[in-house]
Structures are given as structure tokens and as C-alpha cells.
Design brief:
The protein is an alpha+beta fold. Helices cover about 30% and strands about 25% of the residues. A hairpin with a 7-residue loop joins strand 8 and strand 9. The radius of gyration is 15 Å and the shape is globular. The relative contact order is 0.15. The model has no long low-confidence stretch (mean pLDDT about 95).
Length: about 180
């Protein structure tokens, strides 16, 4: 577990399936993903994140307030081998709408990056988002990630064709305090 002044990042539990599915069913939360996910697809994501944690010791982790309220997820995952920016690692986040604008994504991502650079010795972690995802771009800016336009890409995903990704880079020498 990773704790900050306000949030906790922890591995997934069976009891997280319902709140994750509820978040994934929110049209606004999932707008950048092509729309809401069915419960089975949400469960598949949870299983993939849990398996990644078992394999690597890191993954997308549950993001919750210290009182246990589910806020979403944040964390680092290996980039798919066939992805345009592979090989590498990518940090991402997705929060329930009621948690937007409170700084939880930045706080959780900073903690995940600090932990990963210290514990795993990563050389860099990428973050990418669509040109119209201003909220995620703002998080990347607050984290101090370096914009890397030479690494921008276009990819076809199951839910979105010809998706444009704008890339930012995190490195261990950046300030993660």
C-alpha cells in the first residue's frame, strides 16, 4: 500500500468489482474510452490489473480516500508490446466523477511514480492522452511531466479507431516529493 495525506493506493479486492463497474458505466467518466464498459469488460480490466500486480509488483491500483471511499484507480502498467510507443511503462488514472477537481489524480499519480522510481528503478514512465482530454493534460502538467511531441502516436483500439495520443514523460530525476 502507498499512502499520502489524503489517499491510499492498494491492490485490488473482489469487493472492488462493483464500484469499478459503476465507474466504468458512467458515460462522462468513460468519454475518452469510447463510452461505458459492460460489467464483464470492467471485470476483465480488474483481473488484468490484479494479475499485473502479482507479476510485476505494480499496476493500476485502487485509489481510495483514507476513510476507504472508492475514488477510482491510478498506477503504472507495462505498455502492450504491439503499441506504437512500446516497449515501456505508462501511468494512467480514472476517477469517479464526484472525485474530479479535488487533486486526487495528481496526488495518487505522484505517489505511484515516487514509489516506482524508488522501488523498481524505472528509467522513464510515459503518460498519454487524447488532444481533447484537458483534465488529464492538466494532471500531467501538475506532475511536471515533460511533453514529448516526437513520441505522439495514432493507434487503433477496440473501442476507438485512429485515436491520437499526446505523450508526456516522467523520469526519476524529476521532483516526486
Amino acid at each position: 500500500m502507498i499512502e499520502t495525506a489524503r489517499v491510499r493506493l492498494r491492490p485490488w479486492r473482489e469487493s472492488d468489482r462493483a464500484p469499478l463497474a459503476a465507474m466504468h458505466s458512467d458515460k462522462e467518466v468513460m468519454a475518452d474510452y469510447g463510452g461505458p464498459l459492460a460489467r464483464a469488460d470492467s471485470d476483465t480490466k480488474l483481473d488484468r490489473y490484479a494479475a499485473a500486480f502479482e507479476t510485476y509488483g505494480f499496476s493500476r491500483l485502487v485509489l481510495e480516500r483514507l476513510d476507504g471511499a472508492f475514488l477510482g484507480y491510478v498506477g503504472v502498467m507495462p505498455i502492450w508490446p504491439t503499441h506504437p510507443v512500446a516497449p515501456g511503462l505508462e501511468i494512467g488514472w480514472r476517477l469517479v466523477r464526484s472525485a474530479w477537481g479535488a487533486g486526487y489524480a495528481s496526488e495518487g499519480a505522484r505517489a505511484a511514480l515516487r514509489d516506482g522510481f524508488r522501488r523498481h528503478g524505472w528509467e522513464e514512465v510515459l503518460s498519454y492522452t487524447a488532444p481533447d482530454n484537458i483534465r488529464s493534460q492538466a494532471v500531467m502538467g501538475r506532475l511536471g511531466l515533460a511533453r514529448a511531441p516526437d513520441r505522439d502516436f495514432v493507434a487503433n483500439y477496440d473501442t476507438v479507431a485512429a485515436w491520437t495520443g499526446l505523450v508526456w514523460v516522467a523520469r526519476p530525476e524529476m521532483d516526486w516529493s
